[in-house]
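Regression check, magnesium ion case 515:
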Amino acid sequence: MTATLSVESHQPVDISGLLSAPPRLLIGGEMIEPRSGRSFDIVNPATGKVVGHAAAGGADDADQAVKAAVRAFAWGAPWRRMSALDRGRIMGRLARLLEEHADELAEIEMIDGGWLRDAAKNVEIDLSIKHLDYFAGWPSKIEGNTIPTAIPDTIVRTEREPVGVVAQIVPWNYPLLMAMWKVAPALAAGCTIILKPAENTPLVALRLGQLALEAGLPAGVLNILTGFGGEAGEALVDHPLVDKVAFTGSTRVGTHIAARIAGQVKRLTLELGGKSPNIVFADSPVEVAAQGAANAIFFNAGQACSAGSRLYIERKNFDEIIARLSEIAAGMKVGPGNDPTSKVGPLISTNQLERVRGYVQDAQENGATVVTGGSDAVDGVDPHGYFIRPTVLVDVDDSMAAVREEIFGPVVVGQPFDSLEEIASRANDTPYGLAAGIWTNDITRANRLASMIRAGSVYINMYGATDAAVPFGGFKQSGYGRDMGHANLESYLETKSIWTGLTPESPVLTPEANI
Ligand code: NAP
Ligand code: MG
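Current build output:
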């Protein structure tokens, strides 16, 4: 999800009012006290300090939020009566409001989510706005068909209808964008929503919900239920009035949700983890490949589902590219998001920091060499922040956890390879299938390998771009369903076939012939 565009620099905004606000849920168009009566800490990852409190929605709150979404979806409710064009217009107004509030939203992402301020604005917020703009054009283009049948004197047409009430459960790594990947197509389809942001990043979702009301979205169409996954999230997954669950997060939680849903016949889409191979052939210019490899793993401190975390380099260039990549990594300043010279911000939480350190230490204990970075504390930053240096590991083998498991931090494992067949097989030797990168000037080889790799996105001589119009999602244990593009819109729509008899003799079928 790296982006190459740039908008003008970010202006710091005072969000202290937002941080000191009492913990509230956004349900039915109102900021309300949680029935659970509980809240949890909002923590700034760059300092480890508690900066505010968010409401911990419980099962009762989830029930209230679902019922608000059900009411907003009822036949005759404003959202259902609204023309498709007007639905798109409201989405467009929301996109403009997000633009107006881009500095504020970036500030929230920095303080709540540990983002670098400029990256938050230029990537997180910018891509979220583009996503909304893309889907704002869709409502008026959702059409059914007229179908010629073998039955005389009948007309059959299909209508595309919203799937209904959707629970959307999202992670913390791109707090606004991950929400927008789901909220925008659901609104375009005409669904109503309960959005459950990650407990690590509750704030931006609440702001999104408030701005949506300001844009004219009817009350209850977008409800924000902050809280814990095991509590608020599960209550949504289990709720009988929820028609669809859209989840982005870890494969562990995704499998758990799929199992819970199995007996309920709810619709479910899963966008899960990855351990994506990034493959560099020797004909790729060293500087291009090394920069590409660095961006693929170190952007957002490696906290990207499609991060290029397994780097494979054709043997004859292995040493040179690892040396250059390590030089780039060592030159990336680790620091807080409010320092414009920082290139790698903090990880999201102390748990995540310990996990990532654990992978590095385990690899070292099993014989890996740390070329740069490592698990030691970082100098020159707040010691209570969750910082780790960009890390390059070599002398690794496929049995190591660091090679096989998603680390979700700025840690890349580098390995040499010798042939195309070998690398295709090693690239696919993972339970995941989210993304892959191929760096070569040989277009035939690039496309052959792209066909051989089992992953939802393959990048040739680039890495990690996303665009609202392009489907994104996983093969294998990286999930099912697609975010983005009209493939995603489909997952928020049902198809209804409507039959009309044209003569008094219709229907031509006898009751016995009914299916
Ligand atoms: P996570 O632990 O799976 O959590 C994701 C969301 O699920 C959070 O809102 C979480 O709430 C909630 N949750 C946790 N347990 C739940 C349960 N039992 N029932 C219902 N909801 C539950 O993932 P994460 O650590 O936040 O995010 C990192 C993961 O997301 C990585 O694996 C990454 O690859 C994946 N990801 C995938 C994509 C993609 O498009 N494929 C994009 C981005 C990230 P809490 O916050 O309270 O735990
Ligand atoms: Mg936070």
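Comparison notes: The two ends are 48 Å apart (CA to CA). The mean pLDDT is 96. No diff flagged against the previous build.
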